[in-house]
Amino acid sequence: MMEKGEEVKNKQVILRDYVTGYPKESDMYIATNTIKLKVPPGSNAVLVKNLYLSCDPTMQFRMRSLRGPLGSVSEYYVPGSPINGFGVAEVLDSGHPNCNAGDLVWGTTGWEEYSLIQMPESLFKIQHTDVPLSYYTGILGMPGITAYAALYEVNSPPKKGEQVFISAASGAVGQLVGQFSKMMGCYVVGSAGSEQKVDLLKNKLGFDDAFNYKEERDLDAALKRYFPHGIDLYFDQVGGKMLDAVLLNMKVHGRITISGMISQYNLPQLEVLRNLMHIVWKRLSIKGFTHRDHHHVYPKLMERVMPYIREKKVVYVEDVVEGLENGPAALVGLFSGRNFGKQVVKVAK
Predict the structure, then answer these.
(1) Cα–Cα distance for residue pair 125/136, rounded to 1 Å
(2) Does the reported pTM lie above 0.70?
(3) Is the sign of the CA dihedral 193, 194, 200, 202 positive or negative?
């Protein structure tokens, strides 16, 4: 049992240098420093022991020297320092009035065993521990907020009987958008990058159908096969050729909600969309968004989703690797589709 104020070793994942293109394992390395298990006097910081860390595609942007889609310079990683991201942690010591030792929290934390969080106001206190704590990196965390906002806040919610298409459907967010849409009485089809993931969508997550986009030479023809009467709502995380094909298959007054374009993130030249006139002809509503604008809906998400989890009405698939030292490989694996479900790193019990 470690005592408050004790100095302990702290394993960390360090960014070696700025990254161009897809991150590689060699862009990060493991280092061990020391940390005192006590908040400095007069500070309102919080000292935490990290339990689970979330691997998210947008972390690659934070590794770059070229400032791109993020909001502020402070969101970018600094070479020679630990990377950070969403995680679940236990509070060991606190100078903040809203946090106490023993509390469980989720929010932004370091990729290390222990973190001193200087701005604990952004942390969410975990009230429900009758579900896996790792869920707070996924269905009860940022991906859950993203899925909820996509369906209920950004565009008009899907109605019973509507045709819904989801790309990257087996990932952290897509699997939720699909299941929530099914609960609303929609016909739901997802695309994924392997037969194993297609099987997951159809036989475990309850999608009406699914296809492997890598096996489809003609995406337009594939979409016409699954949506002969057109698509009412498309949830896009891929962009590029898939989005271009979807534009050909949208219904009049259809909605497209975009939370990412992972196919475009590392191209030297972005792919040209050739079917943009369909936006006009079909009077489409297209909206992009980020979870950052929707954290205020978190109480609504919890109210809606906790009963689903307890009643086993929703399934959440995770891919959990053990050990901080395996974090870089898990993060890099996102960009080749190596993960099967929400990618999580378990740091400690």
Answers:
(1) 10
(2) yes
(3) positive
Nearest to 295 by CA among 131, 159, 172, 123: 123
Q: What percent of the chain has pLDDT over 70?
A: 96
What is d(CA 275, CA 240) in angstroms, rounded to the nearest whole number? 11
Q: Phi-psi region for residue 337, left (φ > 0), alpha (ψ -120 to 50) or beta?
A: left
Q: What is the DSSP string of 261-298?
A: -GGGTT-SSPPPPS-THHHHHTT-EEEE--GGG-GGGH
Given this model, what pLDDT does residue 338 score? 86
Query: In 3D, which of 206, 252, 211 has the Cα closest to residue 229?
Result: 252
Q: Are 210 and 242 in contact (CB under 8 A)?
A: no
pLDDT of 2: 62
Structure token digits, residue 51: 């339990």
Nearest to 143 by CA among 166, 111, 120, 176: 176
For 236, half-sphere exposure in the C-beta direction (CA atoms, 13 angstrom radius) is 28
Please write the tens of the pLDDT for every residue from 262-300.
Answer: 888 888 888 999 999 999 999 999 999 999 999 999 999
DSSP 23-67: --GGGEEEEEEEEESSPPTT---EEEEEEEEE--GGGGGGG-SS-
Q: What letter represents residue 227's amino acid? A: F
Q: Judge whether 53 and 344 are in contact, CB under 8 Å.
A: yes
The pLDDT assigned to 65 comes to: 83
